[in-house]
Design a protein that fits this description.
A 3-stranded parallel sheet has the order 1-2-3, sandwiched between helices. It is mainly alpha-helical. The relative contact order is 0.14. It folds into 2 domains: about 220 residues, HUPs (Rossmann fold), CATH 3.40.50.620; about 80 residues, Tyrosyl-Transfer RNA Synthetase (Orthogonal Bundle), CATH 1.10.240. The radius of gyration is 22 Å and the shape is globular. The protein starts with a helix and ends in a 12-residue tail after the last helix. The longest helix has 30 residues. The chain contains 14 helices and 5 strands. The site of tryptophanyl-5'AMP has 25 residues, from strand 1, helix 2 and helix 8.
């Protein structure tokens, strides 16, 4: 690490190429990505190699990857202040992934909540890729010797494994990797429109940051509020309402106080509140929709940004792998002279 980078500290995070950023990604992680870019040496990967652990369509995959890059830049990630790149363009990710696989405790992998959720009832048909997913994630982080990892709450367990693997490597081969710590936002787990499960594109319970105002209104109309408020005249309970938690993130203090009061006294109905929230979301995300349209009109600029990101990431990754090979006693004809 350059002395400058060492002083500032390294940040790495990643996101799956789902085609668009949703509110959960934005409030749970990407806001922090942008904030940290101001003062740290930041690397952000669109993790296409992670995405192939689930079934996907090769025909639409490039558009999904491109859509995520557009979303991130439109959301405010500044390529002058951080490095945005595609994971598969830096092959050292999978190289370190294999090395860490040889140190990874199988039991800890089998106990991962996300692995259990995603494997469902597939039994022995489950792929090894899904099981090894968090090891590859650890490699993404350790490759950059990142000590800070801005993520949502659902990734905290994966970071625990990254720390285990850093420790195991350091114990076996000498101090090489720092132990990475998760950085959470205040909105570390945004619930979806169903008000019950984590917002995610695969559950189709999300609001995309690039959704147009009409789509946001349609989606908000289906949002769950207080399940006990059956009639318009029933007093509401904002403290159990998911839409109210969004007010707390997005509205000014006077609006929060008014919604709270008028919901409890049944002056404000759930539907009207949801449409108010639809307008707030549309306005909040308006600059992002505008920037996305500009970016889409200049695909060559997008390529340049990602290529420059991969180059910067590759330089750090190659240096780490050189150290790793040396520490592990892997003799490489190109890297060190033969001894003995
Ligand atoms: P992914 O693509 O599912 O999500 C990207 C980031 O968004 C956060 N997030 C949320 N935060 C709050 N509420 C939600 N509803 C919500 N949904 C998503 C996630 O916590 C994450 O920070 N395994 C990772 C990708 C990854 C990675 C890495 C992350 C691969 N390598 C290295 C950090 C470091 C994932 O699938 O995130």
């Amino acid at each position: 690490m350059s002395p400058e980078a060492e002083r500032r500290g390294r940040v790495l995070s990643g996101i799956q190429p789902t085609g668009e950023l949703h509110m959960g990604n934005w409030f749970g992680a990407v806001q922090n990505w942008i904030r940290l870019s101001e003062s740290y040496d930041c690397f952000y990967a669109i993790v296409d190699y992670h995405a192939i652990t689930a079934s996907y369509d090769p025909a639409t995959f490039p558009a999904a990857v491109e859509g995520m890059a557009v979303s991130l830049l439109a959301a405010g990630l500044d390529p002058e202040k951080c490095h945005l790149f595609l994971q598969s363009e830096v092959p050292e990710h999978t190289e370190l992934g294999w090395i860490l696989t040889s140190l990874a405790p199988l039991g800890q992998l089998q106990r991962m909540t996300q692995f259990k959720d995603k494997s469902g009832d597939q039994g022995e048909a489950i792929t090894a890729g899904l099981l090894m997913y968090p090891v590859q994630q650890a490699a993404d982080i350790l490759l950059y010797k990142a000590d800070r990892v801005p993520v949502g709450e659902d990734q905290v367990q994966h970071l625990e494994l990254a720390r285990t693997l850093a420790r195991r490597f350091n114990n076996a081969f000498g101090e090489t990797f720092p132990e990475p710590q998760p950085l959470l936002t205040e909105a570390k787990r945004i619930l979806g429109l169903d008000g019950q499960s984590k917002m995610s594109k695969s559950k189709n319970n999300h609001i995309g940051i690039l959704d147009d105002p009409e789509t946001i209104r349609e989606k908000m109309a289906t949002a769950f509020t207080d399940p006990q408020r059956l009639r318009r005249t029933d007093p509401g309970r904002p403290w159990v309402c998911n839409v109210f938690t969004w007010h707390k993130l997005l509205s000014d203090p006077a609006t929060i106080e008014r919604v709270d009061r008028e919901c409890r006294s049944a002056v404000l109905g759930c539907y009207d509140d949801k449409m108010m929230m639809a307008d707030i979301l549309s306005e909040t995300f308006r600059p992002m929709r505008e920037r996305a349209a500009e970016l889409r009109a200049r695909p060559e600029r997008l390529r340049e940004i990602l290529a420059a990101g991969a180059e910067a990431a590759g330089a750090v990754a190659r240096e780490t792998m050189r150290e790793v090979h040396e520490a592990m006693g892997l003799w490489q004809t190109k890297r060190s002279p033969a001894t003995a």
